[in-house]
Amino acid sequence: QKEVEQDPGPLSVPEGAIVSLNCTYSNSAFQYFMWYRQYSRKGPELLMYTYSSGNKEDGRFTAQVDKSSKYISLFIRDSQPSDSATYLCAMSKGVNNQGGKLIFGQGTELSVKP
Amino acid sequence: SAVISQKPSRDICQRGTSLTIQCQVDSQVTMMFWYRQQPGQSLTLIATANQGSEATYESGFVIDKFPISRPNLTFSTLTVSNMSPEDSSIYLCSVSDGKTQYFGPGTRLLVL
């Protein structure tokens, strides 16, 4: 079993839809949770960073962490064609060299149609 | 966040040869990382490169195959040695700000 599971999609939605992207994980030691966006032929770009459980909002993006269920989500409101990309979840146990190793999900490919 | 550049952006190589990938950061950073992203797969950490010490390799990756240099706090190289078609992948460097990691644009490698 992979430490982090993410539905690879592809996920196709109409412009303006609310998008929900999810990851589950098995290691309860994970404390730091991230979402990256990766456009085709580009490196991953950090979107959201959260520590422990709870919600964090940044514009149209909301990240949720439920440590009791080992489940994290990224919501995109009023989705735009420019949101079309692959979204990767990542998590780590800590921030130092040894504990800060990032474990990535497989990535979900999102397409927002005009 | 730091601005990270990589060279080359892409290359096509023959099996048995080696390729060195360069990673340049616009600010001094302690920790740099090298990842591999194979088609349809998630990012996999190859090694952690700290200036002034030997790189630390993850399980399944060895120094003879992926030698790394870290001569200063803004630069690192990853060499993919004795390449085979299985090494065809995107290679990414990243840096840490102490909380999370930021990635370069990647090097797309195709081995024939």
Summarize the structure.
Chain A is built from no helices and eleven strands.
Low-confidence stretches of chain A: none
Strand content of chain A: over 45%
Average pLDDT over all residues of chain A: 91
Order of helices and strands of chain B: EEEEEEEEEEE
Greatest interface and its residue counts? A-B, 24 and 24 residues
Structural class of chain B: mainly beta
Please give the radius of gyration of chain B in angstroms: 13 Å
Helix content of chain B: under 10%
Unreliable runs of chain B: none
Give the helices and strands, then pairings.
The complex is a heterodimer of chains A (114) and B (112).
Chain A: E1 4-6, E2 11-14, E3 19-25, E4 32-38, E5 45-51, E6 54-58, E7 61-66, E8 71-76, E9 85-92, E10 103-104, E11 108-113
Parallel strand pairs in A: 2-11
Antiparallel strand pairs in A: 1-3, 3-8, 4-5, 4-9, 6-7, 7-8, 9-10, 9-11
Chain B: E1 4-7, E2 10-13, E3 19-25, E4 31-37, E5 43-50, E6 56-57, E7 68-72, E8 75-80, E9 89-96, E10 101-103, E11 107-111
Parallel strand pairs in B: 2-11
Antiparallel strand pairs in B: 1-3, 3-8, 4-5, 4-9, 5-6, 7-8, 9-10, 9-11
Explain this structure.
The complex is a heterodimer of chains A (114) and B (112). Chain A is mainly β and 114 residues long. Chain A has strands spanning 4-6, 11-14, 19-25, 32-38, 45-51, 54-58, 61-66, 71-76, 85-92, 103-104, 108-113. Chain A starts with a strand and ends with a strand. The model of chain A has no long low-confidence stretch (mean pLDDT 91). With 112 residues, chain B is mostly beta strands. The model of chain B has no long low-confidence stretch (mean pLDDT 93). Chains A and B meet through strand 4 and strand 5 of A and strand 5 and strand 10 of B.
